[in-house]
Here is the input.
Amino acid sequence: MFSYKRLEDIFNYIRSNEYTSIAKLTSLFKVSDRTIRSDINNLNDVLQGASIQLKRRTGYYLQIHNKQEFNAFLNTISKRESDTKDLDSSQDRMRYILTTLLYSHDYIPTEDLSDAVFVSKNTFSN
Here is the structure.
């Protein structure tokens, strides 16, 4: 559902707190203010039945517009989380590649492995 793990983490953090300052988010995720604002925009593009709003001098909060639609969205997220692999770091990607190669009984094309870990063929080769 979310393009990358940081979006999910930001969403979960904002959802679990009444208000969250941008300073708190930048320190937690080690990114700039601009990146946080961009991530919030990306989240708002994906969210259904809710949006993340900013209250001046207080912080970001989750505003639910349609509770039924939002609950359906949450159910979709939790179902997809159980179906997806966690490949947020290079170590996770290397572990996935090694496990796939070790347990495979067949030839695996480089393109398939690079697609599976969401990197280009050049990055994969390096």
Summary: The chain has a mean pLDDT of 86. The first helix runs from residue 5 to 16. DSSP finds seven helices and two strands in the chain.
